[in-house]
Amino acid sequence: MMRKNMFHSKNKSQAPKPVGAAEDRLEALINKATNTTTAAIAEPQKMPVPLATSRYTASRQNLRVIPMGGVEEVGENMTAIEYGDDIIIIDMGLAFPDDTMPGIDYIIPDTKWLEDNKKRIRGVIITHGHLDHIGAVPYILPKLGDPPVYTMALTAGFIKKRLEEFGLLGRSKINVLTKDDVLPLGNFKVRFFRLNHSIPDSMGLCITTPVGQIVYATDWKFDHTPVDGKPTEFDKIAKFGAEGVLLLMSDSTNAIKPGYCASEREIGITIERTFSEIKGRIVFANFSTSISRIQQVFNAAAKYNRKVIVTGRSMVNNIEIALSLGYIKIQPKIIIKSEMAKKYPDSQIVILTTGSQGEEGAGLARIARGDHKTIKIKKGDTAIISASPIPGNERAVAVVMSNLTRLGAHVIYNKTLDIHTSGHAHQEELKLMIALVKPKFFMPIHGEHHMIVTHAELAQTMGIPPERIFSLDNGQILEITSAGEAKITEDAKIASGYVFIDGLGVGDVGEVVIRDRQVMAQDGMFVIIMTLDRRSGKLVNQPDIISRGFIYMKGNDDLIREVKHEVRKLVESKGKEKLEPNWAYLRNVIRDEIGEYLYQKTERRPMVLPVVIEV
């Protein structure tokens, strides 16, 4: 399926803050150096008093696991787990559109079922701070009555910043966890274990339910030498496995890739070597949430006496949050404003920016187009794109790279140098997770369908019988009984369609609108304006024709004249079929008949839009 321009979008609903002000904030934070105190944005709040175990009816005595998104795509991750009168939610992510969704900014899960059951929601647990896991929080939380959110400190900081941008900060209580907390939520008890990913504070969950334990592990890899020096807690995973695990839900993103995922430490060595060899300016594009990679850029810049210019609103915001919480350590005065770059030779400048996925409005794309306000590419620059294109983004990334080389820059990316590693486990790591957890049932998550299926096949090689492996679609329900039986309920499925975000609109653009946009993008539009007498229904004068994206008007006089003649004939003939003028009927006739006529003449099907003006 589609996807997903992972940082194509501009948030039309939010006016960007001046970058200068953000740079001033960063500069002030850095100058505080190592004694920087934790900012108020992530002050831990006391854990809530445990909710009393809810009473439940007989019909709810089975455990139900419901993926709301993330098992048919990479993105839009959200899972509901239900038992009795209690529901907990894991993650609230968004996805990004592909080129079949013109004009769409984001996609979020359909939450109608959760809205109908919001009084039973005991809490929302967020596993880490990537947008495909937190991006939908400001759209969904208010619809669900602002339930409490539980997550780690860095993720809490990102969520609070996002809520603040939407004017929602303070409505939901954001509870900051530690990896050793035990969180009671109704019928559930949740324990946590540290996982490695491309962002700190990623965590897995061990959820104790009345019918058994669930281990939930999304977005992880086994990195023995992570940048922050905090590897996966293998001891906890093995302990949970020894206690007995009913169901393992595990990341499928790289299930098709053999072997092991490379460590971030290896990428850090490559970055340092590359920085030592490049003589000119370096433009380094990276995900703004890849905090470990950002730290490595600052480390290499400090080692080779380079100053760093940070551009891109999300990059500035996320560095500010990570710095205030102690997740990034930066030398004082290493960051400079872009206008100060003239004081330094090119060999001492690094430009750290967003846009590694070719996003139209991101810093790298603006630099590549030559319309960035303060940064212009010149001969001798080297652009490093430290990311792999998300499926669907390859063309956008290629365009950015071509624009950069056209301006005189040399481009380095993952196919020319190992400058990126994934944050998702490869096959041998996935098998080790299964071996440690030893689950009775297995459910692959986080991936497109072929990734899910490959992970399921991998689980079979680890000895899990195929009848105990469940590959679900969004909205399907896995039900597990107290007797230890599991099945996908064939007679029950919740709504799971896409909710499109377009500017300020949430869900007001549906499939019909998308289809109309696709037609206009593919074959254009053909507008027929008819001025009709309101009493007789006759044409007062010749129809006017407007064509956009279909034909060039000046070069197709004969076709335009023929269409006007056909419209006049249709108005005269179809108007007689009605005792009184019926403009809706006439518009439908004109649309269908002229649409077919244009196809016969051109073998193209533009969107035909008849317009009636009464006089």
The quaternary organization reads as single chain
The end-to-end span amounts to: 49 Å
Q: How confident is the prediction overall: mean pLDDT? A: 86
Biggest beta-sheet profile: 8 strands, mixed
Number of helices: 16
Strand element count: 25
Q: Low-confidence parts lasting 5 or more residues at pLDDT below 50? A: 1-19, 33-59
Helical percentage = 25-40%
The CATH architecture of the largest domain comes to 4-Layer Sandwich
CATH homology-level superfamily of the largest domain:
Ribonuclease Z/Hydroxyacylglutathione hydrolase-like
Q: What percentage of the residues does DSSP assign to strands (E)?
A: 15-25%
Strand order of the largest sheet: 7-6-5-3-2-1-19-20
Write up this protein.
The protein has 615 residues and is of the alpha/beta class. It folds into 3 domains: 269 residues, 4-Layer Sandwich (Metallo-beta-lactamase, Chain A); 149 residues, Metallo-hydrolase/oxidoreductase (Rossmann fold, 3-Layer(aba) Sandwich), CATH 3.40.50.10710; 104 residues, Ubiquitin-like (UB roll), CATH 3.10.20.580. Helix content is 30%, strand content 22%. It has 16 helices and 25 strands. The strands form 5 sheets. Strands 7-6-5-3-2-1-19-20 form an 8-stranded mixed sheet. A 6-stranded mixed sheet has the order 8-9-10-11-12-18. Strands 14-15-13-16-17 form a 5-stranded parallel sheet, with helices on both faces. A hairpin with a 2-residue loop joins β10 and β11. α7 runs parallel beside α8. The longest helix has 20 residues. The chain is globular. The two termini are 49 Å apart. 47% of the residues are buried. The N terminus is likely disordered.
